[in-house]
Amino acid sequence: NYIITWTYYDSVENEILFLGTQNRSNSENMAFWIYNLEQKKIKWQQIITKEKAEIAESFNPDFITNERIVFIIYEYGDGNTGFRTITLDRNTGKIIWKRKGIIDVLDASRNFVYKKGSKSISLIDLNSGKNIWKREVQYNPSEYDNYLSEDSWLAGADGIHKFDLDDGSGWDVEIESDAKGGWGKVIGISILNTLAIMLSPSNSGSYS
To answer: Of 162, 167, 169, 206, whose CA–CA distance to 184 is shortest?
Structure first.
């Protein structure tokens, strides 16, 4: 028997997605399964980990399609504690890939996701879970305001940073706020032909 820790109703497929844990003598299994409401039966069930774990973040709807399910757990293992991103085959429940860390959606339609490291950015192929490229950066990545074109990615984080989608090359423009206390937070990027507009705080604390 499992204790259900998370559920999600997929109205398109008319299915309920479940995540649950099962206490064992030497482990705590975490499993994922799908129940089809039309057929009134479990479609499949998959053990995710035999370590103690919990769901780390809410599911991003971009991560749930008719082909795959991507989710993030926090795993408590002996010498192996940390975040894990896992991708399952939506039709069979088979684990396609699993890797350390948290990933974010960049463009699900093109299978682009990215991972923020300690002063590094990795563009990841959502199908394989492998890096397309990894680029060292001189700032500490936190939250991004993203703009994606056909061949490049503009990210706003303490400035503006351009990444070529093929190899990660590009440039960085760091902007320091005139507000007391350091860097301004980029709160939006809009593209007018080739112009990137950034908003940063003024001395009064407002954005301009």
So the answer is: 206
